[in-house]
Structures are given as structure tokens and as C-alpha cells.
Amino acid sequence: MAEDREPSHPMTGSGQPTNASAAEPPQKKSRAGRNLPAAIGVGVTLGALIIAILLVESRGWVVLVAAALTLAIWELYKRLRQQGFHLPLVPLIVGAPLTTLSALPFGVQGVLTGFATTAVVSMVWRLFHNGLGGKPENYVRDAAITLFVATWVILFGGIGALLVLTEQGAGPIWVLMIAVVCSDIGGYTAGVLFGKHPMVPQISPKKSWEGFAGSMIAGIIGSVITVSVFLDESPLLGVLVGAALVVSGTLGDLIESQFKRDLGIKDMGTLLPGHGGLMDRLDSLLISAVVVWGIVAVLGYQMTV
User: Where are the transmembrane segments (predicted)?
Assistant: First the structure.
């Protein structure tokens, strides 16, 4: 999860300063910026839910992803609306679950078709439903960010849903989730204990090279285990997969961090105490899901739909 400080001069979508973030009540936090007890409680609860679904009925993962993406779209819509952006809510919030669930009967074709349809409908919807009562204003800006959100959440999330529909069953999901969790824990621990050298202070001031090293070590260890156990592949592949997922997870954190800094906000929302909003948890997972899908394709695993 990205751990940012609030930018000193937050701006709205129209270029005007906003004090929306300043109104958020302060919370007692750890050195790394989290309400640690709340973060642990929420993390354990979410982890238990995912484990239960994967063990009982792995295809329930697709339904879980659909629900999460719908909430994420709503969260992003509210945040962007507060900053003066006008996104077409109806096509996005309908397209997110339909695109994801279409993976069950139609596989890759369902996700790609759902994403493309959502993108087209969103562009047309914004043209005629601009919320301003007159001719469209800021159409290019709003259409561009709509397509960014649709790609970031709906397409990447849909790809994440597909991971459970290969001949390896829930194996790729275990690899994805455990690598990202290990990376997050390793980075948090190393950053708190040893973090001295900022990694990209202009984007995420609290992210350190020491924390990245901790993420890399923990992520590789987790991936060696999961790739060997769940995919029955070489531990050497686990090393490569772990390194790739740590890099992708870190880049996902940074993308969301810059997104929030552009909006002048600290968290995407308040749905998950100790973590912020749902997107503050999905940031690294969405990018990493694409990486795992690429690995699945290279290994030649067949789809089961």
C-alpha cells in the first residue's frame, strides 16, 4: 500500500486549491503512517475471506473480484467528483461487475469485450450526460480519465479474475496474493526499522530503498514457496516471479500515490480502517495481476472455459 504524505498544494481537477483532505480527522499512526492495530485486523479479515473462498470454491474468486471492482469504481468516482471531474458513473459501475463476471462463461473474450464495450459506452455517455446542463465541457479531460480508470480497474481487475480459470486452478491466485502480501510486510518492516534513503520522494516520501530491499527479499521467499507448491514449477522460476511481482507491486503503489497527489488527497477513501480506501489495497494487486497473467501465458497454461 502506498504510504504518502499529503502534498503541500493539492489541486482540484479544475486547477483550484482544495481543503478537502484537511478536514479528515487525524488518527494515531505508526511511524510508517498506518493505524497498525486497525490495519492488522482488516488485513487478517480480508485474508481469511480470500482463503476461505479459494479453498471452498475457487471460482468464487471471480464474484469477489467483481464486487471489489464495483466498490473501487464507486470510490474513485466520489473522489474524482469532489475534485471537479465528471465521470460517467452508470457505464462504469455497471461495466465493472459485468465485465468481470463474463469471465466465467466466456473467458478472455468476455473480459476484453466487456472492457471495450464499457469504454465505448462511457465515451458516448459523457458526451450527452455531462452533468452541466449544456454543451459538454472538459470532455477530453473527463473522457481520458474515464478510460484511465476503466483500464486500471476494470481491465486489470478482469485479468486478475481470469487467473483462477486456468488448468492450475487457484494456483496463480495464491502466487499473486502471497507475493504481494509478503512484499508489503517485508517492505513495511524494513522501512520502519532501517528506512533512511528515500526511493522516490517526489511521489512517495515514505518509500525507502531499504523498504524496497525488504520487499524484494520477502516477496522472493514467498514466491519460491508458492511457485513450487501451487504451480509445481522450478524454485528458480519462483525467484524470477517474486522479483517481477515486487517491482510491479511497487510501481502500482507509485501510480496510485501520484494519482492521489494530483488530486491532493491522502487516501482514496475510508472503507478499510488502517488502510484507507479499497483502492489503497488494490493498487499493487491490479498491476501485479497483469504480470501474473503474462507469466501464465508464457508457461502455456490452458484456460478452463
Answer: 36-55, 61-77, 84-104, 140-165, 171-191, 212-231, 237-255, 285-303
